[in-house]
Amino acid sequence: MLPVSIHFAPLAPDYDVVLSDVWGVLHNGVAAFPESGDALARFRAGGGTVILITNAPRPAEYVAHLLDKFGVPREAYDGIATSGDVTRSVVAERRGQRVFHLGPERDIGIFEGLDLTLSPLETADYVVCSGLFDDEIETPDDYRAMLADMRARGLFMVCANPDVVVERGHRLVYCAGALADAYREIGGEVLYAGKPHEPIYAAALAAAVRTRGADVPRERVLAIGDSVRTDLAGAKAFGIDSVFVTAGIHAEELGRDDPDPAVLEKILVTAGVRPRAVTRRLAW
Number of structural domains, the chain? Predict the structure, then answer.
C-alpha cells in the first residue's frame, strides 16, 4: 500500500526535471495553491528544471498569463508545454484547409497566425475540438447528433484537450476529451494532442533539455499530476516516474480530506499504474 501525504523534499534529489500538471496541482481554476508553487520554486532553486505540462487548448503564453492572474509565481517553472501548441503544429501541417472549431469562443486564439479558414461543419475538411461550447450547462449527450454527422462525413478530429473532466472550484466540468472519446467510440478518427499521449511529453522534455543545455535521462524525470487517466498513465507510457496528487479530480471518490487507502489502491490497480509517491497536495 502506498503511503499518502509524502512531502516533495525527500524525492527532489532523485530528479533533475519535473513535468508538472497545472490545473489540479497548481490551481483549481479559481485560485492558486501557494504551497504547490512554493514546492516547485524550491526544486528549481536547488538546480532542478520545471516544465509545466498541460492539456490547456491554448498557447503557452496564454497559460502563463492565466497563471499570473491566479497568483502562481513565475519562479515555480521554467517553461510550459500545452496541448494547444501541439494542436497548432498539427494544424500548421494541414495549411490552407477548412476547420470547424468545436469549442468555446475563448479558445479561438489557438488558430492565431495559422493558414486556415474557419468554416461551418457542413463545409469543413476536419474538426479541432477544444471543448464544449458551454461547459457550464452542457454535457457530451448534447453533442450526439453533431458527432454522428461528423462520423457520417468521415471527418478527422484533433482533440486539443484530452481531459475528460477538470476541477473548477469544487465541481467538475466536461472537457474536449469527453467529446473526442464519444466520437472515437462511434468510429471517428481522433488525434489527441495532449496527455496521456507521447507528443506533449516529447515537447516538454525537449524544452527541459533546451533549458538545461544537456540531455536528461528519463529516470531523472518526474511527472506530477492529479489524473490517473492522463498524468499517471501518460508518465508510465513515456517511461518516467510520477507523483499522484489526490486533491484534484479524484478528490470526491477518494475522500476530500483524508484519502481512503483501499479506494486509492483499487483505482491504481485498475488503471495499471504505480506512482512513486502519493500526496494530497503538492508541498515541499
Answer: 1
Exposure string (b/e) for 36-46, b if CB count within 10 Å is 16 or more? bbbbbbbbeee
Q: Is residue 48 part of a domain?
A: no
| Domain membership flag for residue 201 | yes
Dihedral sign, CA of 47, 72, 83, 234? positive
pLDDT, position 201: 96
Predicted structure pTM score: 0.83
Nearest to 51 by CA among 11, 18, 27: 18
SS3 for 223?
strand
Return the sign of the alpha-carbon dihedral for residues 152, 154, 159, 164. Answer: positive
Query: Whole-angstrom Cα distance, residue 270 to residue 261?
Result: 14
**187 burial type by CB count under 10 A (0-12 exposed, 13-18 middle, 19+ buried):** exposed
Does residue 122 form part of some domain? yes
234 belongs to a structural domain: no
Q: Which of 224, 144, 128, 132 is nearest to 173 (CA)?
A: 132
Q: What domain range includes position 128?
A: 57-216
pLDDT (tens digit per residue) in 250-264: 877 887 667 788 888
pLDDT of amino acid 2: 64
Place of cell 508538472: 20
Q: What is the CATH number of the domain that holds 65?
A: 3.40.50.1000
Order of strands, sheet of 17-20, starting from the edge strand that comes earlier in the sequence:
79-82, 49-54, 17-20, 221-225, 241-245, 277-279
Q: Which helix (H) or strand (E) holds 279?
A: strand 277-279
